[in-house]
Task: structure prediction
Amino acid sequence: MRLQKYLAACSIASRRGSEKLIADGRVTVNGDPAHVGMVINPDSDKIQVDGASIDLDRKVYVVLNKPKDTITSAKDTHNRKTVMDCITDVGVRIYPVGRLDRDVTGALLLTNDGELTNRLIHPRYEIDKVYHAWVKGNVTPETISNLKSGITLEDGPTAPAKASILQSRRGATLIRLVIHEGRKRLVKRMCASQGHPVLELRRISIGDIRANDLQPGEWRHLTSEEIHSLKKLAHISIAN
Result:
């Protein structure tokens, strides 16, 4: 793996910024000055920046624009494509935060930060997740009111959602739903309970994190501001 790519994957700096760090003589590999373009082995080489070692377990945070027909799993026993097939060269093992169904697209976070993962998926912290759903039929204001009030499903009542109609066409309606629960297939079940099966579903954001700057299957590292925003929502000290 090229050194500048590894530094960028560890969120030390951008790729270009990492190249500058190397060119400025601030990076060493196994005690020797590094050079731009050199290939390193993250499992065996000791990389330091300004004398500080880069920990292979450094926390990494990325957002993926999940494409359709992709399994939200680190691996699949049936050899189907997983979200991990979209992620390359991050330098550490990362895992999806929660799940999106195979046919659902949009923003998916992946990280090796277990504490943040647990809090983002726990309903106690009420992290907003925004969805756009094309549903079958013409949604009425009464249905929107039901979604806002909460719906009783087979596994219990849902928390009140934020809901609105974005667009209508013959035989279908695009609605916006904001929920903070992580129950399985929740958006689909909520809409189906009102007589409006989901035709197409996309997650727009998790907290303040969006993937609308990415093509399906593309990913990027979160900025420090985005990481701080997520930790603040999850009531985690920024020092962590």
User: Anything to note?
Assistant: The radius of gyration is 21 Å. The chain has six helices and 15 strands. The mean pLDDT is 91. The domain at 61-123+208-233 is CATH 3.30.70.580 (Alpha-Beta Plaits).
